[in-house]
Amino acid sequence: MSTSSKILLVKLSSLGDVLHNLPIMWDLRARLPDAQIDWVVEEGYVHLLEPLLSRDGFRGIDRIIPFGLRRWKKNLLRLATWREFFAFRKTLQSTTYDVLIETQGLLKSAIVCSLAKKSSGAVIAGLANATEFSGYEPLARFFYNQSVQVPMQCHAVDRSRWVMCSALDWSLIERGDAPQFYPAEFIASISKSSVAGLRSPYVLCFHSTAREAKRWSNNNWIALGKDLSAKGYQVVFPWGNAAEKAVSQLLASQIPNAFVPPAFSIEEGFSVISGAALTVGVDTGLTHLAAVLNKPTVEIYCDSPRWKTEGYWSDRICNVGNIQNPPSIQEVLDASLKLLQQA
Question: Rounded to two decimals, what is the model's pTM?
Answer without folding.
Answer: 0.95
